[in-house]
Amino acid sequence: MATLATGEARDVRVVVPVDPAFQDPRRRERIEKLLMSYPNIRADELQEIVSFLRSGKQFDVGMVCGDERFTAKLSDIRRSNPDSFGSTLTHTIWFLVLLFLPLALVCALPMLLGRA
Fold first, then answer.
1. CB count in 10 Å sphere of residue 58
2. Which of 4, 46, 111, 113 has the greatest number of C-beta atoms within 10 Å?
3. What's the average model confidence in pLDDT over 60-82?
4. Which CA distances in Å does 2 have to 15, 16, 17, 73, 98?
5. How do residues 15-66 score in pLDDT, each as one tens digit?
6. Is 88 exposed, middle or buried (CB count within 10 Å of its CB: 0-12, 13-18, 19+)?
7. Secondary structure of the chain in the HEC alphabet?
8. For the chain, how far is it from start to end, CA to CA, in angstroms?
9. Where are the domains of the chain?
10. How far is Cα 85 from Cα 82, in angstroms, rounded to an integer?
11. How buried is 84 (Cβ within 10 angstroms: 0-12 exposed, 13-18 middle, 19+ buried)?
12. pTM over 0.85
């Protein structure tokens, strides 16, 4: 229930399209089976694992990554696919700008206020 500025209450529903594979409760089990067979899997199956690790439900990804049976295999997958897991140059630049811009403003503020 949402209360509007007029005081009127309305039922508000937000519909967000979700990939059907993301909703599949058996997805984690499938990924675990693929990891058991790794490295003897096809390229499309490897891509399915990478996609799961990047965009799967956090709980499911955590359960898979926390399983000691898959630690070495997941490390190998991450090492062999650095582009799939690393940040891009654009993300790194934005991170640095957002990190240092507030600091620069705080440092410059006394100088700017002293001149006013």
1. 7
2. 46
3. 90
4. 15, 18, 22, 47, 33
5. 555 555 555 678 999 999 999 999 999 999 999 999 999 888 888 999 999 9
6. exposed
7. CEECCCCCEECCCCCCCCCHHHHCCCHHHHHHHHHHHCCCCCHHHHHHHHHHHHHCCHHHHHHHHCCHHHHHHHHHHHHHCHHHHCCCHHHHHHHHHHHHHHHHHHHHHHHHHHHC
8. 49
9. 22-85, 87-116
10. 5
11. middle
12. no
Residue 32 one-letter amino acid: E
Taking a C-beta distance cutoff of 8 angstroms, is the pair 24, 60 a contact? no
Count of all residues that appear for the chain in the document: 116
